Amino acid sequence: MNVSSKSRIIVYIVIIAVLVIVGLFGAESVFGPRESVVEMFPVTSESPAVQSGVVVPAPQHTPSGRRAKKRSARRDASFEQQLRALKSGEVGVADSEAGSQGGSNGPISEIIGRSTQDQSSTGALSDDVASVKGTAGTQERTSKDDDVSNEDPLDFLGGIMVSNNTGLQAVVTPQVTPQTGRPWVRGQARGYTMLSAMQPEARVVVETQVETLLSAKIREPYIGVLIDGTFGRDFTYLKDVIERLSGDGRALTLALYLTNGPTMRKWRETPIDALFSRINPSDFRQRIRREQQLQAQFLAVVLQAKDVFEFNISLNSGNNNVAIVMLEDNLDSFAYRAMREIASAEIGSLAGFIRNPCLGCYEGNDDITLGDPREEHKLERYNILKRGDAYSLDGLGFSYPDGSGNGLAAAQLRDLMVNSYSRGLRYVGLWRYEWQGLEFGGGNPRPETRTHTPSNPDQQEFEIEMLREGLVAETDGISVDDEL
Length: 484
What we know:
By secondary structure, the chain is an alpha/beta fold.
């Protein structure tokens, strides 16, 4: 046997030995563990994303362990059984104390014009709350978290000073500073509460805001949209906006408000024909827990949200979905639980839930979040917000450095943006009366009759400053793909 033949035999023996060892002990034991993106770029308590409560939620719904199981066991009735009954037309969703049947209006598939499949996952309340807390980087919340902070009201703003100047601007073509020359910033989702994003007459405002957000070069943009029909249902256009805000390594936070609380509060005189807009809020709290027709109407909106949420995640696994069952809601904890459970069964694995209470806006409203984070709009409620909560200037607004506009003064807005980051809020949304076609102190006319006024170029520059204020500039030379 020559040397060449002996060498080949030795090589074969070595290969066979390696394969045997790998089979017995596993590849990681032989070659070591494979590094993941998380291990190469770990998220620690020092990371800006953790500090601001904007950790990207996983699209999968994860259980919360023993605590979640105990909470599920304490529920008086299985929500899975309630959901089956709701979809088959047998009974409405009732709270744990009532447990009573509501009026039957036929199977839910007949009411909303489509059939829905029975869920293998119930989207149980305790599990969803745990998922929201785990993905938003928040600590476990209890009913004690709903107590008002003992801090002086808005001490970081130096007292409340709201301007009442008028400063309507002429409609202009969107113009923004080019993106070049401005470093990317990250650490908190920021953007616009563009409730009227699907209203055709508001298109110039939406386009201006999209261009401003793109120019601001914020890694985590945010938009909040009302989808109950108050401002139309152009979901094709909404998806186009979402797609543009998800490019270039951005991780979009999309908040969808499923129903409209402020319009409901004016149920006697509102000219707006939207879902539940003609129902007395006190009656609605009881009926949504028992009446199948109302539950089916709400579920129809939930299914629309589901389609949009799925689209958002399909664009970028880092995108975030937030479901808010009612804008500035008129709910008590029982009504909130009923609406949340209906929604959770369909979108619990796609979105985190945040409650947007409006305490004192209507008799009987409460602000018990059932463990969910909260979004507040009132200035006097800002100091109760905790890490993982959110804030919007909806209904407040702000003025520009030249004094035009109504709401928070320009200097105070700057302080609020900085404070919101250090406080760890999940997102902050800018809003102005003019963008929504409203006048300060005026009423709420039908959206198609309004004049929606966009920001002019100078105002856009100020908005860019505010959207970036206090965030962290990305380190030069670090790949965006690696970081995300």
